Amino acid sequence: MGRPRxxxxxxxxxxxxxxxAAYGYEGxxxxxxxxxxxxxxxxxxKVFGSKRSLHLTALRNHLDHEIHPAAAAIATLTDPAQALxxxxxxYDNGPAAxxxxxxxxxxxxxxxxxxxxxxxxxxxxxxxxxxxxxxxxPQLASTVLGARLRLRAHITASPKEH
Length: 162
Known about the structure:
Layout: H1 9-23, H2 30-37, H3 41-48, H4 51-75, H5 80-90, H6 99-107, H7 112-133, H8 137-152
Helix pairs in contact: 1-2, 1-4, 1-6, 4-5, 4-7, 5-7, 6-7, 7-8
């Protein structure tokens, strides 16, 4: 009979999400995950199976607890300016800020499961903007995600040339 689990799985997933959001999938090693979560390597593999599986779990958690609730709040707004401002201010702005964007850029092109989760997150934002912006919702979702990407890269608006 094995020993009972001595760690909080949800907390471990949250910690992993924060690491993946900060350093990306490739930039986060199993050693980084072990150190940050305080979970022994064997236990980490026993519970999650692999680093990839933990990444998928963290991304799913991010969608369920951050992306979808933010999208639901945005969808209730009918004023176009307010909906867009709220989307830019709140979308992907939780403790794992950037996880969706990094997953889109780093893993989605090579991993169909990540691609499906990323598509779900982007579609949620598009659907949330549809009540206030109609057919322009997909373009505005791209604007929101682009704004988040610029902020993540510490890129501010370029000065106007004279």
